[in-house]
Structure formats: C-alpha cells, structure tokens
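Incident log, entry 3
Record: Putative phage protein (380 residues)
Problem: checksum mismatch between cached and fresh output.
Input:
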Amino acid sequence: MAINAGNFRALATGYLNSDGDNVLFSAESTSKISAVFYVDESPRIIRGHNLAEGEEAIVELVDGNKGGEIFTPFLRNGKPVKLNSKCNVIVLSIPGRYRVVLNGELGASHIVTFLSSSTHEYLLEAGYCCTDCEPPAPSVWVDTGIRREKDGRIEALEEDQYGNKRWVDLEEVKWVDTGKRDYSDDKSMIIKEQKNQVGRTRWVDDEPRAWTDTGKRRSKGDAIEKEQIDQLGATHWVTDEAVVWTDTGDTRCNNHKIEKEQADQLGALRWYVTEETCGYDASYPLPDGGYGYVEGDEIDPEASVEMNDCDGVFLFRLYPTPRKGATVKVLACDGEVLGYARNRSDTAPIVNNTFKCPDVIINQGSCECNLVDTFNRKIR
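Fresh output:
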C-alpha cells in the first residue's frame, strides 16, 4: 500500500542531494550539538552511520529566538527519539525546529538529514521512535522503604526503573508495646501505648487499676491508715482500722489527776487523764479506819463534807460519795453514812484518841458528847 496524492511517485528528493548543508555530523564536526533544522510541509529523514555500541544521537525540540533558547528531548510514547547502533533511521513529520545532540565520539559517526515526499510508503513508520523498535526491559520493582496502613494490612511502596510506583501487600498490622503506660479517663484502668510497623500509635486497656499495701501505716485522728501503691507508682492512704489505746501500766499524777500512759497499735503513746484524783493527802486518822482532811493538808475540793466538834470547830473533811482511794465509810451514832474517808495516808501523825464527838454525829443520833477513846463509838 502506498501513501500518495495521485497515480505517480514524487520526483527525486533531497536524499539524492549531496549538499553539505544536509550533514549534521561528520569527521570534520567540532561540536556534539548539530545546527538547527526545520520541518515544514515535507517530512524529514535523519540517517546515521558508524554509531558504535552505546552511542546515540538524540533529537531535541528547539524554541525561542534565533538559534533557540529552550531545548527539550523529543519524546514519543514517553521515550526519546534517537539514533543508535541498532536503529539508524528516523522520520520527523511534525512541523517545527529541531536539533540533534550526539552522545558518542566526535568525528567517528556520520549523520545526515534530508526532505522527503509525503507520498513515500516508508512514512508509515514515521509514528515510531527508534527506541520503540526495541521491546522495553521488564520492570524491576524495588522496595522504597515507604509503608502505609490500609484495611488492617501493611503495604509497601515499590518503584521500577521507569519511575512507575505501586503499593503491594506486605503483612498484617502488628501492634507492639512501647513501654509507656497511663490511666484511663476515669482512672479505673491502666492503659498502655502500642506502635505498629508504620509508626502509628494507639492506647489500649492493659489491666484494671489495683492497689497493693506498701506496709506503711500511720495514725490519723481516730483511725489507723495504711499506704497503698498502684501499678504506676501512685500512692494513697486509706483507713485500715480504728485506733485502740492500751494501758502500758505506767501512771503519773498531773494536776491532781491520775494519768495513765497508753499506746496504740503503731506504738504511739499518750497520757490519758482519769477521774481519779491524786496529790491530795489526808492526815487525820479515824478510829474505825481511814483518814480525813484537816487544816494543813492539801485538801481535795471534792471532799465537801465537814466534820465539826460539839462547839462547831472544824475537825476534818470527808467525801460525800465513795471513789477510788476513798471507800472507808464514816457512820453516825445511828449508823447513817456521813461520808467516805481516804483509805490511806502518806503523812498521818500519831493517833490521838481523845476528842469530842462532832456535832453532826450528835445531831444524827442519840450519842452524848463525851470524851471517848474511840471515835464514832455509840454511847446510849
């Protein structure tokens, strides 16, 4: 089949012309960049001779003023149009300015160009680059090291020698503990941080927050508190039991009150004030036992019962009610209890058995007021 405009071939064209203007590179060339040439209405053929293995002559587009200011490789199907040792004829049919750049030894190859008629059958090959004559090498995919997470899987980005990229399935997402732990928002759980293969992190539940006794305890108010620690090292104090005070057996007299030394479960000590008085010493001995307070004694203010003689002269004081250390009853002639004397004395003098019956005794019974050798003896 022929491409033609009628029933006759075109006349002989430029390829028969040996004009030196058609030569792009020759033995006399001094530059690896050819002169700029034009493609107008007629296609232009470029032929190369003596191109060695690995050498090539690349066609470039030329734009700009005069000899050109912008130069770009002429591409077809994404590949440069070029002559080499395996493909030494190119047909250019697109109007414009061009030039050829030689990548090889200067002066060794011979490259020419000439115009051709558009009716020639070989122009059917004009749509091919020289590099299209060779099948492309299979893609060799190389892992770029870039990863992404998609639908629970890890994908790797690969790139081939042509700059093409693709994502390929690599493995399922795996989560690894980073060692960081914290509390959940409501503080009820211990959460831990995890990281996957692409560096994304997340926080997940690890275990319920739990408190463990540290062994430390303290007294606070009426309670014994114990210290507890959680998995992250936070501590707090909680009530363990009520404080219980136990007598140590030691006592002391302070401000006329007996104080007992007491210890709690942790060994803390305190002095507990009792109702028992102390520091008061009754020196007046009574015939039936016990002692009353007289002038000169340090008298307990609670010893409020006064005992007087027949003339109303104060003799001694007694307690109105029994208490610890004062349980000896003092009776009237008729047996009525008048008061309670102290059980013992540290300063009692020698007993004087001659004294008058106190008025209170006479008033409480039928005793006569006589000198007697025994106090509180009933005389009828």
